[in-house]
Amino acid sequence: MSETKKDDRLLSVFASERSEDTIAMVVAFILAAIIVVFFK
Amino acid sequence: MNNQKSIAGLLIGAGLVLYAIILKIGYLNDVLEYLEQAKTIDVHSGVALWVGIIVLLVGISNFIVPVGRFKHDSIVRAPAPGIGILILLCILNRYYLEPIFKIWGKAFQPALGFDFATIFGFNYILLGIIIGFLWANIIKIPAWMLPGVKTGRLILKMAIITMGAMYSITEIKHMGSLSIIMIFVFVMGTVFFVLWFGKFFETDKSLTGVLASGLAVCGVSAAVAVAPVVKARSIDVAYSIGMLLLVGVVGLLVFPPVGKAVGMNEIQFGAWVGTGLLNSAQVAAAALVFDPHTIETLKVAEIFNITRVLILPLIVLVLAFWYAKGEAAENVEKINVGKVLIDKFPIFVIGFILMFALMSVGFFTPKGFELHGKDWYNFTPSEKKQLKKEELAKIKNFVDSGSITNPMVKEALEKLLVDKQITSTAQADHVLKAQDFTKDKELKKLFKDAVKKVHEKPITIEIMREYMLWFFAYGLSALGMQITWQSMKQAGGKAVAVIGAITGFLKAFLSFWVCLFLLKETI
Description:
The complex is a heterodimer of chains A (about 40) and B (about 525).
Chain A: H1 3-10, H2 17-39
Chain B: H1 8-25, H2 29-34, H3 41-64, H4 80-107, H5 109-112, H6 116-119, H7 124-139, H8 146-149, H9 152-163, H10 177-201, H11 205-216, H12 220-226, H13 234-261, H14 266-276, H15 280-290, H16 296-310, H17 312-330, H18 337-344, H19 348-360, E1 369-372, E2 375-378, H20 389-400, H21 407-419, H22 425-433, H23 441-454, H24 459-481, H25 485-490, H26 493-518
Antiparallel strand pairs in B: 1-2
Helix pairs in contact in B: 1-3, 1-4, 3-4, 4-7, 4-24, 7-24, 9-19, 9-24, 10-11, 10-16, 10-26, 11-12, 11-13, 11-17, 11-26, 13-15, 13-26, 14-15, 14-16, 14-26, 15-16, 17-18, 17-19, 20-21, 21-22
């Protein structure tokens, strides 16, 4: 793995990629659920 | 994050709130009207106000208690000032710079002969990356902003998950079987060709993955969607986007004269650009350059373009497995490849696929709405959608005149006379087609208006699309800030150019022969 890739991977506020993915999924689905509940 | 009190968040939050107030009072109305953005005031003042209030409150706490004192400061308090700046940048790009480039593009069109803003894709996405890059490399990113920039990848993933809701498998039923087969072969063929090519060139796997998606599907959005899946570096995405736009521009200049020279008809040319050209905006532009008088070529090109975009969820899944499998193979010390594959699989892709599945089963679609190609329709009977008596009389005269030679078109108009409004997508298509049987401009407008009356986008999709665009604008500005001169030198720019040029040429060349010899009058 190149040096730049290592640097790039550091650029996340989360310690692990799985927590980042989980948070992204939770937020995206909460937003979608809110929209379905209030606007559908 | 170095245990210091910081005033940055407080100032940026206050700035955002102040901007929202200025917008609401109406001081910027003239400017936004000139930029044709007056309609966006409510949304963008709302975003500025709410983000501003949150950043201001966190900023006050950062000013009183040093950041780093509490356990989750790195993800809660530290990013706030950077988030505020990125939101400001999104506002600048979406509501000021993109419209300015649009105006410039049109202003220079007579001199240049083309709209440079549309053709080179100067939209908020590209502008976000460029400004982010220039900021990081010329002014430098201050330490207080960096935690905010680091949230870019998270927001980009949220954008991609939401993007899943923009596709529906039900759309495929409206596509012709030939367009589906042809597009599927070309898209998957391109993916596997680029993956093989990347291996042959010994290109970095992440870069190969981004290129495979961008070259196979529809350019920039496909490259961006796959970037976190294959753990791409910012520079991989930037190079790929640059290459895709450049190959697209070359295609735009080459396709129309070649199509004319070999005497392609509208269907052949539309299918060729929809398959062989790389970027959606350039597909539409090339179709209009070839055939500026009717929309036949554009319609065919769009059908092919939409079909290939629909394959994106499959590409995301294929590349996620391909990348995870490669990572698993590198970990030789781990014996259980299946377990490593599960460990390495980016789980946000499941979110994307789940959104796609939910959209396909109509979870986000309110009752009465139907998606047809790019357009949404609402056929629920209502007076607003009905044609007036005199309009119906005009159509009746036209039907009775016997000038319609197509029985399907005639049937659609007869049904329109009974129901007074359009009731299905097939009928909408046929009513639009009725324009071909008359020269009466009023009648043509009447047909278009009848379809327009049932055109309606569900509010659910509009809201989701809106915040998805904000997420993309945010994530890509942050991505631009992570590209450095040094990474540009290290990254495989040459490989991108070679793979892009060869694949772009091969795809255009092969699809040219297929369209010329296999397609005749129908798709």
